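How a chain folds remains the central question behind the approach discussed here. For one protein, we set the task of working out the structure tokens from the amino acid sequence alone. The sequence in question and its structure tokens are set out directly beneath this paragraph.

_____
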Amino acid sequence: MKITRVETICLHYEMPYALTYARGEYQEREALLIKVHTDEPGLFGWGEVAMWGGPWATSVAVIEKEIAPLIIGLDPRRPEYIWERIYQQTYYHGRKGILIACLSGIDIALWDILGHSAGQPVWRLLGGYARPLRTYASSGYYRRDYSLDDLANDVDQARRDGFLGYKMKVGNIAGAIHAETLHETPLRVSFDEDIARVRVVRKALGADLDLMCDATTSLDHKTAMAYADVFEELQVRWFEEPTQPENINGCAELARRTRIPIAGFETETSKFNFAALMDAGAIQVVQPDVIQVGGITEARKIAAYAQMRHLLFSCKNYSTAISLAACLNLLYALPNADYFECDMDPSPWRAEILNTPLYTFETGYAAPFDRPGLGLDINDEQLEKWRVQP
């Protein structure tokens, strides 16, 4: 079996309202999917590339002009070899950022092919721990014309829908570390106003469910400590990306001072950088983004190191059904898997592009499936509605 072609698929969606967080405001969703074709009739694999903050064209160029020539003609059932070949061949200008994100999409597609070829779900090929995953609803952005009562109502709806936790955004304050350069970010609040939002969510959620708070790498560690002091009182489950990932010492100092577990970093890449964060004691919930960190191949090594250090592992999940499937398959395979994130914000690229639901949701848990590969049954006609040229 050989790889014959790498196809890129760019998606665009205009949301009905804008979402604001500490690093800006956006009303458009964008995604970059990959389809790796083989010389076996009807056998291909789906992948997805994180391309947040940049145009499709730059990622498409990396995939089509740099990565594809390195893998055309290779056996797609060798994801470890192909991962290492791409990494080493692009070493001098790769290792992080856009190239690793593009490699992530290729890697996920190869695991999808391997699963279909073997007639097994990817999670079983990865070890098959097969424990149903606790789920939490993920939203809680700052929004225009959105009151605290509106926020409380949305949290209450997530509770009634059966989710076991809720994650919200914090840190959109004047003291954010990038506020002087990202000064156009709207809806800045004071520290006290931000804490009031958290208190409202905790009350709506109730004491029996988990609350997570995400600062999206926006705080210095001293300001993060002020948040963490209140989060202890409110029994926050974890404090996500309080600092920038490069601030390992500061984040480690924060982690030593608070009883709230620190989660991160979805914006970080490579097993080496995650090992440094874990070794320093900077994170207690290890949380990469599988479509940015280097794909399933790299993420499972990070998860194994986390298990050695007795740390829980989770994944960012905030894009299409493809990244959702990659995240689920990885988490199903792990003994140290924690929560599964369920994106609640407007998007037509989750269940709407699937002919068959990816997983069953019951009493707050997502149960494993037995379909081969990533378990995806993509409706190409629905997908085409959102396809655009890079």
